[in-house]
Write a sequence for this structure.
């Protein structure tokens, strides 16, 4: 059965329990549980952590603890019965544990380890405390350590400060707010000091004089390991002051045997001493521990003959020293002993023995000898602090070891009463003796005895040092052969006080012979009495004593014989008539000196004091003796205090009349002496004397009389020193008076009671009289009054012994009331007056409620006066806090209503006024100096705030009621309310209490909310209806808003434990205040309109507090506001404007969240539904909700570690919202500047300029003045606009967008011109000119553009389910861009296809990114079509001001022709239109519109051929105009690519497809287009002819064979086209050549299988490759069907980047979005490869290094793979091949994409599954002239049996036996595909001959190699090569032209024909990838196209032509043309291969 537990209520889990039983409660080790029931070894209960979950657990898993159970039963509470400190440590450690781990995560490693250490210490100390084995003092010490560590940890972890008293946490309910404030202060102070505060409330008034803390040295001798002495030794330790050159302590003596151990075996481990009573001043002196070692044995240590062995002498041996200054630091830090080794040095000359320690300290090394080893005295030292009692208590172990207390020679700083001491210290100084006829000097030993008056030797009255018992005789040490010995040995004589008088000292001098007998011969003596005849003791001085001769036979039995003789010179002067016949003769030449020092509490050396104590002996001198008491030293007086006091009162009784005043003065003198800190501790002696020994029963009458007499005379006297002294002695005088009266009462049974009372009354009248005098005229009077006031509060306790509390209170009230109540007497007097009041309040009298009622009014009156005038604020606050403290304590026991009422009446108003003044002062000073002055600092503010809060907390309903009723008028009430609200507001605004004073802050909030609840009813009652007062209401609302927003009340930020604690104690005070606020708002009625729009912002702030209840209460107020404004104005424009304004600033401060947005919308829409103005309301709420979405996004981006992109996107979004949707110009401008700053930070200078332009456009060129705004000063509109224009121009310049800056330069120029400001005009014109220069001279890169789709609900609002086009960074290609996007959105998933996503993706809770590249469609076609415009200029227009972008996807429609799939290959062309053109205010803009068109195969073919023609024209033109210097490789390759591809089937494929009769009959509508294609082909033949003519002119002699081959192939190409296109046979003469095509050029022409085609991504290597390799048929290129940049590779296929073929081993692409190896950006940049880098470099001959750079990475690439041995021609590589190599490798400089690593630039491509068009064809990798890029002509796929490696040199496939070593090698894997070197820069496939089809079709998005690469007349200047930065000419051929180039002539033979043929700007066709056309600058003049007239062709940005009638046919910038068809293309590709191979 389960039964409720009786005792077992609380326990700790000692073993974790998994709860694996039904109803089991899971428990962790260390958790605490509350037990409810038990049953057979099981308990049922709850864990304190989760009090709501009940369960069972095994009893033996629980350790029970005692606990107090309250409210037994179902709802019982259990509090453990343990020390509160232990409970606190437990809770704190649990809290720290969580934070401690976070430190590690945040890399705060240092604090992490420190905290771990402290936590371990806390656990250890807690264990000690729980053990229960500690003494009370130890418990106290452990608690001190615990609290210091707790506070340290809390401070470092940023937790709250815990206020404590005596180490225990205080309960804020039990003490006044003032006390709580002081505890916080002291706790904070102790944390800073990291030392304990013994008592947390420091005493503010009359801090008792602090007793100096004495220090003590504990010294223990461990051992003396210096074993060479071999005799017993005595070691004397003492403290020595170097500066004063004297010993300051007694000596500590240790007696050791010859082995170095103690002579007394009991002393083992007990040879220790405590040098006591060192003051702080002593610790600063240069002290040393000096150890003198005296041996006891033979006269000479190493001479056994000297002296018989049985006689032992004390002989000096050595000395050791240790500087205390050196070791003080180390011993004061630790609490245990620390060991030191002292070397013992021996003296070189015994005569200097008395100075040996000084010589060692001074390091006079000639005078002593260092020991041979490091051995010596091993001692340990420890520093102890505190008085002896405390030291004994704290270190019992030391005293258990029998420590020898070794005192200071004099008295300590503080003489403790009861410290009885009677020590005479005698120093044997020196002697001077005669030789006595001997040849050598004597060995003198002094023996001393203490003899009593009767001649008896006193036993045990001589002490050589502490640590050994006293003895009866003293033997000095002997100095060998020394007649003038200096000893300097100190001996203590502890003579009993009763034997002191009459005793004397006798010194006997003996010579110690070292002869055989070794006897000691007496030869003289000296003596001195200890007291003089007048009773004074021997003075502290050196006494030179007379030496009297004697011998061994002399007897000293009759001491009277010599005592009659003079002992010294002074003595001799006193008794000159001494008979000379005595037996003792004085030796006049000999003398002996000793010095004495008396430390006695019983004996005096003062004559005057002795005379007073024996006054009866001199009755006639009494007056004089009493007068001389003032001159006796204080030390003497306190030693004989009791005796002196007794004497004085006896004298007083003897003759009151005669001696009364003198005795009174002497008494005052003594009382005031005890005020001195040195004698302060004798006050208890005085108290004890008064209580127990004082017997003057009649003294009170005389004392009162004298006191009154003094006071009454204070008005007349000028000198008032004695009066002031009497006033200072008031306390003790009253003690004597009262005690005397008590004694008298006892003796007489209470007689004369009335007379006594009346005399006291009179005395008080005199006191009042003194205080009421006007002291302004007399300064001395001020001091008298001050002295009286200071002493006055001390007499209350005495009076209470004789009078009732009320009577004393009346006395005091009268006295305090008699003080003038003006404040301007003089500040010093004010202070004294207040201090007196303060001490009155702190006195016992004030703790009685009866007396408080009497005293409070007068106390409050004075405080009120001072506060009114703002004087002495600090003291006043101290008094007030004492009063509140007392009242709080009393309120816990009794009723204090009346007192509180008094305080409210007197203080409340003036307290508020004072606080307002202090706060405004401190604020103004902060404003002026940036710091507060001490007077007004937080300290004073804190004091007064705590006083005000104490008062408000004590006030009850009735107090508030009375307060409010007492106001005479509403104006007074209004003033009061304004004041108190203002103070409360300031309390919350200024941080009066530091952030970590949580207890204080919460209590303050609680008091404020309670007070506000009392006052709000008064506000409502008095100021609502007719008397509405805006000011008071506004003040109230501001207060409530501030209150709810206080940081300390935001519980969401607190830890769960802290939150629970606060809610349990106070509840959520924000909710209380919100209800109060809401009800007050409702009470306003029609006056609400006054607070619109003023209170909207503040209320909005309140609703943003993350507390659901507060939000629910407050949000409806907005509806109310809208309603009231609607009623008044017919709209709610103000509410709307204000809400939007404030929302922005509040959200950016971090307030608000998603829930708030929803709640706001929900609550308001619900309310608005009912209204007539529903529609406007709903649209407004929706608008605000949408603004909030954007603001929240913006804030999240800003505060997170978000990327620049997100932040910029967010800002643009928000900025546009402000402009377009809610038309807030100021906010709009603010965000313009925020956006601009972000762009600048990200170095997007062009975007920053466009952003600022938005603001610039808002301004006019007018002189309207503008106010200061943001960082702009107040200036005219013209000036601001001018400044902006200059800044924008500067940014355009930095962003290299000079074209955008030029119009602004012109605009400024116009303004300057109109103002005749020629200086500025000149400057701006020069700037404009510079920009034109820059356009022509400086290198610029064409950026990539990417389309990004953001799908899914997890994206921020401004991105969600939208698509954007982004302008890439420099050198950024798709791969890099995609990585960047994925890192910006780490949660996002990359989509693997380009298709538009469906709803499931749009609505899912995830993030999907879809990214592919797009091609820009330039708007400004005119520029691009102009022939003469340099490419540098065109380049800009191709990629700037772009709003439309294109992306092509190839697909098959209808049946697919296996032999020629180009027949059915269509292009799906998507055109995206953006909201704004790029570049603009952002790097990306949203897509506004998408259009989809399909391009037919025929149209595609037209575009491809057209692009190629354009490209060829451009290239040829450049060579004609000498823009390409010297190196003709590019032209060779380009021609080879087109001709060879054509021979091998490039154009032939088009012929097959479209000139076929079937096709023509089936597509009658295409007739015109077919004609157009024919014309284009015809044109191509013309252009090629001209190209060959130019080629012949520039070709290198060694390359002639290549030229010949080209001519041959050209003939073939012509003839193959002849029957289709008649008229081609008229070939230009330059082209005709004898060589004929070789029959074995083409091994097999199998068509490419469409299955093998992979979807390629525009930048994917594969696709590049594809495009580059189209050889056999220009049409086959289409088969690389491009799908929006997504490469989807089949298992076998491996992508190869054409350009990177050599170096890149492409691997299957893992993500459709990224190519395996992203091609170099240039590649992707649809730049004609030629544009990318022309090799016209001056440093041609650096080829070796560059070649090395281009070598492939060594992954298994056997060189033979490239040149299989089978391929040879006569076993030798042909000449032209060598020549080509030289030409290519030498002069050409690597300019391939800088983004490529060197390795990438020449890595063999992996085999892919392409089938080659020509079986034998394997492109030879070549370092192309195109600056390091490697290009190969496109090769259409052909099937090739596995293992069939063939190398194809297209036109002339010379077989090589071995590869030239310089070329990078490449493996050919067994695969039908031969890797083909790709055009490095350009992903264009071209129709160089082969790939043309694709160039049109497979365009932009997917790695389109099309036009952009070769076809465009110009190309964005590629980035400077990282490997070797190439001069700009290398990139842009245009730059090489210094002058505009002339019309191109293609051949000498037919200049005019060509001139006429020169084509209009024509769409540039993408070059076959194999071709490496040079960077075509501008389209050179080419033969005009025959069909030109038919179509106005507009050249697109990339140099493509956009045809008006079919814009969509335009080619994408980078269209990759995978494999192409036609034979001509094959021929061309082959030709290119050949070239590249060569």
């Amino acid at each position: 059965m389960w039964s409720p537990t009786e005792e077992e209520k609380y326990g700790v889990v000692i073993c974790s329990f998994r709860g694996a039983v039904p109803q089991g409660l899971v428990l962790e080790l260390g958790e605490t549980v509350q037990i409810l029931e038990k049953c057979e070894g099981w308990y049922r209960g709850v864990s304190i952590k989760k009090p709501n979950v009940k369960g069972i657990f095994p009893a033996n898993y629980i350790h029970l603890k005692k606990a107090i159970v309250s409210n037994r039963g179902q709802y019982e509470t259990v509090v453990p019965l343990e020390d509160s400190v232990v409970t606190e440590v437990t809770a704190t450690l649990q809290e720290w544990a969580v934070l401690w781990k976070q430190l590690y995560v945040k890399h705060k490693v240092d604090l992490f380890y420190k905290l771990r250490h402290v936590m371990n210490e806390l656990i250890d100390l807690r264990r000690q405390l729980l053990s229960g084995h500690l003494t009370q003092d130890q418990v106290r010490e452990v608690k001190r350590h615990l609290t210091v560590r707790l506070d340290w940890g809390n401070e470092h972890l940023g937790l709250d400060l815990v206020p404590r008293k005596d180490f225990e946490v205080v309960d804020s309910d039990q003490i006044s707010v003032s006390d709580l404030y002081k505890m916080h202060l002291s706790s904070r102070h102790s944390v800073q000091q990291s030392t304990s505060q013994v008592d947390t409330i420091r005493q503010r008034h009359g801090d008792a004089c602090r007793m100096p803390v004495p220090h003590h040295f504990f010294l223990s001798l461990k051992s003396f390991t210096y074993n060479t002495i071999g005799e017993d030794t005595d070691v004397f330790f003492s403290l020595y002051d170097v500066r004063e050159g004297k010993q300051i302590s007694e000596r500590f003596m240790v007696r050791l045997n010859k082995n170095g151990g103690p002579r007394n075996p009991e002393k083992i481990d007990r040879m220790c001493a405590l040098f006591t009573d060192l003051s702080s001043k002593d610790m600063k002196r240069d002290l040393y521990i000096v150890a003198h070692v005296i041996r006891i044995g033979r006269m000479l240590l190493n001479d056994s003959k000297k002296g018989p062995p049985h006689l032992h002498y004390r002989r000096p041996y050595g000395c050791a020293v240790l500087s205390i200054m050196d070791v003080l630091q180390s011993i004061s830090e630790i609490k245990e002993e620390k060991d030191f080794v002292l070397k013992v040095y021996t003296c070189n000359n015994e005569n200097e023995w008395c100075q040996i320690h000084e010589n060692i300290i001074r390091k006079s090394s000639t005078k002593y000898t260092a020991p041979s080893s490091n051995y010596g005295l091993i001692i340990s030292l420890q520093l102890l602090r505190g008085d002896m009692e405390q030291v004994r208590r704290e270190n019992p172990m030391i005293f258990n070891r029998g420590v020898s207390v070794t005192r200071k020679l004099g008295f300590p700083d503080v003489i403790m009463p009861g410290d009885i001491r009677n020590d005479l210290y005698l120093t044997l100084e020196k002697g001077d003796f005669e030789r006595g006829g001997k040849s050598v000097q004597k060995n003198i030993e002094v023996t001393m005895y203490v003899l009593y008056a009767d001649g008896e030797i006193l036993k045990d009255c001589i002490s050589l040092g502490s640590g050994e018992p006293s003895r009866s005789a003293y033997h000095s040490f002997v100095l060998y052969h020394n007649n003038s010995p200096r000893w300097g040995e100190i001996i203590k004589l502890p003579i009993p006080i009763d034997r002191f008088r009459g005793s004397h000292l006798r010194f006997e001098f003996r010579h110690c012979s070292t002869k055989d007998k070794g006897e000691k011969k007496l030869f003289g003596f000296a003596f001195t009495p200890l007291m003089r005849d007048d009773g004074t003791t021997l003075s502290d001085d050196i006494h030179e004593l007379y030496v009297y001769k004697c011998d061994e036979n002399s007897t000293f039995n009759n001491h009277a014989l010599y005592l009659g003789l003079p002992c010294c010179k002074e003595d001799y002067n006193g008794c000159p008539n001494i008979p000379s016949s005595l037996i003792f003769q004085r030796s006049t030449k000999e003398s002996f000196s000793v010095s004495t020092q008396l430390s006695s509490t019983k004996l005096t050396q003062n004559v005057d004091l002795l005379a007073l104590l024996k006054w009866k002996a001199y009755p006639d001198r009494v007056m004089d003796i009493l007068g001389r008491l003032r001159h006796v030293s204080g030390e003497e007086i306190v030693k004989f205090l009791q005796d002196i006091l007794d004497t004085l009162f006896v004298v007083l009784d003897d003759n009151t009349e005669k001696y009364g005043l003198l005795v009174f003065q002497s008494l005052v003198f003594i009382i005031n002496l005890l005020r001195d800190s040195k004698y302060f501790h004798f006050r208890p002696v005085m108290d004890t004397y008064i209580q127990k020994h004082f017997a003057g029963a009649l003294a009170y009458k005389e004392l009162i009389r004298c006191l009154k007499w003094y006071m009454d005379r204070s008005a007349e006297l000028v000198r008032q020193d004695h009066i002031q002294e009497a006033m200072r002695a008031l306390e003790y005088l009253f003690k004597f008076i009262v005690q005397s009266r008590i004694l008298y009462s006892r003796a007489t049974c209470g007689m004369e009671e009335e007379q006594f009372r009346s005399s006291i009354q009179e005395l008080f009248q005199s006191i009042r009289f003194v205080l009421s005098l006007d002291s302004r005229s007399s300064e001395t009077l001020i001091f008298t009054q001050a002295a009286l006031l200071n002493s006055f509060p001390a007499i209350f306790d005495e009076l209470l012994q004789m009078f009732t509390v009320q009577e004393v209170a009346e006395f005091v009230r009268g006295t305090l009331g008699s003080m003038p109540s003006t404040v301007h007497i003089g500040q010093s007097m004010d202070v004294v007056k207040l201090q007196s009041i303060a001490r009155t309040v702190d006195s016992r009298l004030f703790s009685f409620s009866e007396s408080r009622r009497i005293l409070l009014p007068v106390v409050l009156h004075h405080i009120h006066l001072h506060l009114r005038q703002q004087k002495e604020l600090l003291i006043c606050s101290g008094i007030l806090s004492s009063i509140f403290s007392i009242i709080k304590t009393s309120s816990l026991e009794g009723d204090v209503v009346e007192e509180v009422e008094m305080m409210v009446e007197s203080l409340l108003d003036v307290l508020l006024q004072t606080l307002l003044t202090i706060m405004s002062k401190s604020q103004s000073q902060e404003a002026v100096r940036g710091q507060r002055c001490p007077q007004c600092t937080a300290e004073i503010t804190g004091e007064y705030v705590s006083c005000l809060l104490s008062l408000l907390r004590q006030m009850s309903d009735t107090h508030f009621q009375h307060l409010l009723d007492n106001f005479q008028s509403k104006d007074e009430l209004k003033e009061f309310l304004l004041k108190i609200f203002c103070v409360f507001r300031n309390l919350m605004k200024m941080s009066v209490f530091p952030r970590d004073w949580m207890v204080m802050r919460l209590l303050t909030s609680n008091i404020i909310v309670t007070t506000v609840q009392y006052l709000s009813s008064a506000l409502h009652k008095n100021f609502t209806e007719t008397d509405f007062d805006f000011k008071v209401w506004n003040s109230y609302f501001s207060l409530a808003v501030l209150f709810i927003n206080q940081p300390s009340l935001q519980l969401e930020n607190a830890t769960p434990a802290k939150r629970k604690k606060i809610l349990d104690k106070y509840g959520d005070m924000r909710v209380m205040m919100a209800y109060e606020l809401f009800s007050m708002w409702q009470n306003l009625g029609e006056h609400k309109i006054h607070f619109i729009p003023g209170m909207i912002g503040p209320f909005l702030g309140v609703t943003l507090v993350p507390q659901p209840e507060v939000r629910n209460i407050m949000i409806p107020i907005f509806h109310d506001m809208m309603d009231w404004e609607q009623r008044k104005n017919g709209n709610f424009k103000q509410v709307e404007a204000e809400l939007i304004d404030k929302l922005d600033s509040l959200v950016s401060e971090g307030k608000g969240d998603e829930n708030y947005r929803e709640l706001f919308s929900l609550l308001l829409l619900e309310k608005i539904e009912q209204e007539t103005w529903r529609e406007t309301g709903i649209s407004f709420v929706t608008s605000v909700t949408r603004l909030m979405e954007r603001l929240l996004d913006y804030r999240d981006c800003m505060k997170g570690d978000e990327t620049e992109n997100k932040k910029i996107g967010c800002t643009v979004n928000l900025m546009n919202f402000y402009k377009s949707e809610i038309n807030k110009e100021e906010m709009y401008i603010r965000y313009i500047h925020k956006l601009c700053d972000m762009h600048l930070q990200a170095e997007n200078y062009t975007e920053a300029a466009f952003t600022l332009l938005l603001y610039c456009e808002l301004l006019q060129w007018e002189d309207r003045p503008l106010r200061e705004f943001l960082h702009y000063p107040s200036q005219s509109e013209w000036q601001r606009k001018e400044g902006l224009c200059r800044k924008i121009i500067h940014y355009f310049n930095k962003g290299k967008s000079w074209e955008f800056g030029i119009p602004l330069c012109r605009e400024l120029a116009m303004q300057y011109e109109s103002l005749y400001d020629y200086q500025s005009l000149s400057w701006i014109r020069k700037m404009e000119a510079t920009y034109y220069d820059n356009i022509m001279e400086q290198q610029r890169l064409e950026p990539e553009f990417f389309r990004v789709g953001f799908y899914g609900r997890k994206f921020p609002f401004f991105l969600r389910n939208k698509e954007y086009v982004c302008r890439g960074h420099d050198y950024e290609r798709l791969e890099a861009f995609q990585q960047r996007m994925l890192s910006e959105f780490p949660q996002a998933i990359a989509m693997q296809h380009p298709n538009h996503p469906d709803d499931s993706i749009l609505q899912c809770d995830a993030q999907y990114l879809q990214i592919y590249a797009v091609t820009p469609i330039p708007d400004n076609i005119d520029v691009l079509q102009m022939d003469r415009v340099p490419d540098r200029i065109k380049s800009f227009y191709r990629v700037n001001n772009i709003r439309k972008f294109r992306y092509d996807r190839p697909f098959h429609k209808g049946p697919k022709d296996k032999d020629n799939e180009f027949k059915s290959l269509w292009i799906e062309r998507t055109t995206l239109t953006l909201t704004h053109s790029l570049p603009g205010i952002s790097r990306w803009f949203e897509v506004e519109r998408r259009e989809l068109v399909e391009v037919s195969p025929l149209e595609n073919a037209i575009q491809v051929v057209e692009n190629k023609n354009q490209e060829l024209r451009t290239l040829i033109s450049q060579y004609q105009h000498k823009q390409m210097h010297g190196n003709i490789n590019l032209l060779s390759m380009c021609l080879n690519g087109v001709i060879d591809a054509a021979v091998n089937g490039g154009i032939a494929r088009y012929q097959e497809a479209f000139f076929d009769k079937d096709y023509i009959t089936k597509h009658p509508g295409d007739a015109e287009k077919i004609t157009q294609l024919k014309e284009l082909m015809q044109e191509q033949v013309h252009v090629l002819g001209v190209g060959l003519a130019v080629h012949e002119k520039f070709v290198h002699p060694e390359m002639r064979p290549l030229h010949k081959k080209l001519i041959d192939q050209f003939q073939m190409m012509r003839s193959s086209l002849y029957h289709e296109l008649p008229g081609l046979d008229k070939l230009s003469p330059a082209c005709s050549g004898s060589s004929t095509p070789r029959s074995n050029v083409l091994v097999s022409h199998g068509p490419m299988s469409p299955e093998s085609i992979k979807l390629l991504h525009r930048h994917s290597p594969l696709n590049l490759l594809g495009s580059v390799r189209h050889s056999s048929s220009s049409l086959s290129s289409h088969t690389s069907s491009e799908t929006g940049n997504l490469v989807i590779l089949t298992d076998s296929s491996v992508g190869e980047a054409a350009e990177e073929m050599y170096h890149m081993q492409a691997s299957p692409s893992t993500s459709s979005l990224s190519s395996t190896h992203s091609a170099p950006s240039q590649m992707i940049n649809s730049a004609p490869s030629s544009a990318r880098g022309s090799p016209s470099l001056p440093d041609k001959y650096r080829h070796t290094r560059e070649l090395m750079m281009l070598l492939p990475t060594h992954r298994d690439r056997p060189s033979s793979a490239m040149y299989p041995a089978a391929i040879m021609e006569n076993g030798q590589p042909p000449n032209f091949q060598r020549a080509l190599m030289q030409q290519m490798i030498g002069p050409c400089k690597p300019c391939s994409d800088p983004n490529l690593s060197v390795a990438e630039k020449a890595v063999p491509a992996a085999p892919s599954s392409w089938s080659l068009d020509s079986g034998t064809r394997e492109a030879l990798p070549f370092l192309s002239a195109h600056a390091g890029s490697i290009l190969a002509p496109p090769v259409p796929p052909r099937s090739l049996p596995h293992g069939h490696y063939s190398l194809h040199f297209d036109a002339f496939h010379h077989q090589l036996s071995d590869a030239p070593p310089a070329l990078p090698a490449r493996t050919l894997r067994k695969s039908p595909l031969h890797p083909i070197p790709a055009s490095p820069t350009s992903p264009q496939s071209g129709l160089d001959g082969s790939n043309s089809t694709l160039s049109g079709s497979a365009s932009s998005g997917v790695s389109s190699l099309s036009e952009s690469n070769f076809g465009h007349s110009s190309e964005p200047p590629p980035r400077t090569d990282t490997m070797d930065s190439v001069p700009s000419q290398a990139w842009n051929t245009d730059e090489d032209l210094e002058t505009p180039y002339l019309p191109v002539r293609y051949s000498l033979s037919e200049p005019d024909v060509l001139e006429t043929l020169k084509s209009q700007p024509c769409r540039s066709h993408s070059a076959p990838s194999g071709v490496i056309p040079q960077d075509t600058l501008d389209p050179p003049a080419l033969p005009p196209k025959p069909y030109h007239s038919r179509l106005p062709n507009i050249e697109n940005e990339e140099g493509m032509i956009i045809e008006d009638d079919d814009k969509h046919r335009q080619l994408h910038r980078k269209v990759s043309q995978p494999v192409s068809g036609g034979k001509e293309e094959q021929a061309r590709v082959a030709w290119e291969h050949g070239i590249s191979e060569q």
Remarks:
- The first helix runs from residue 84 to 105.
- The mean pLDDT is 74.
